[in-house]
Predict the 3D structure of the following.
Amino acid sequence: MLMLNLSCLFWAVNIILGSMLSDYVGPWFIMSLRAFIGSFLFLIILSSKGYLKEIVHLQHKGLIFGMSLTGVVGFQALLYYGLRWTTPVNSSVIGASAPIISLLLAALILSEKLSLHKIGAILISFIGVLFVLSKGRLETFYNLEFNVGDILIFSAIFFWGVYSVMGEVVMKRVSALHVTAASIFISAIVTLPIAYWETTTQITPRIDLFVILSIITIGIFPTVISFLLWNKGVQQIGSSHASLYLNTIPMYTILLTYIFLDGLILPYQVIGMMFIASGSLYLFFANIYEKQSI
C-alpha cells in the first residue's frame, strides 16, 4: 500500500534528522516544535473542510488521549533520546520488531487469534532483535551490557504497538483525519512545558539554518503526512497487518544513511535485520495461508 510505504519513508527521514539534530537541540525541543507545526497545519486542513468544531465532540476521547501519549509523545521521546546513544540503522532495525509487538498486543487487547504460524514469526523476529541488541555477541547477554539507546528504541516500539492497537479500536467510529489531528493537538499541549524545562535547565538549543529546516521538515512530513497516512492504513487493513510495512524503514534508513551520513552498515545489523524481516515475511504468508484455509 503506497500510503503506508510513504509513511515509513518519512519516518526513516525522521530517524536520520533526529540523529543529526542530537548535537544541536534536545528531544523535547524537537517534539514541541514539530507538534506546533503539525497543529498549525491540521488547523488549516480542518478549517478548510469545515471539520474544526467536530474535534471537541469526538467519540473515544480517552483512547485518543492515550494514543497521543503513547504514539506521538512517548514514542517520539524514547526515539529521540535513544538516537543520542545508538545509530540510525540500529534504531530502524530494532524498529522492525514492531509487527511482532503489534501482533502480541492485538492478541492480548483485541483477542485476535494467535496461531502457531504467528508464534513462529514472533520467535524468528525476536532472535533478530536480540542479535542487534547484543551486537552479535552472546557474552553481552551474560554480562548484561546493553546499549541504553537500543533499549530506549525497543521501548519506543512497544509504545507504538499500543498506539496502533488503540487506533484500530478508535478508527472504527472516528476518521483518521480527526484522530490524527486531535492526537497532535494534545501532544503540543503536553510537550510545551517539558520543552521549556529542557531548554532552560538541561540542553541549550543551538539554532542555525540546518536546525530550522530540519524541524520544519519533521513537522510536515514525519508528523502530519506520515501519521495521517498511517492511521488511514490502519483504518483500512488493521494494526497487525499495517505494522508489517514498518519493516521497510530499515531499508530506507540504510539508503538515507549512505546518502547523507556516509554510514557504515555493520554485519550484526544486517544479520539481525534478516532475522526480523524473515519473521515478518513468514507472518505475511502465514496470514495469506490462514485466510485461504477459512
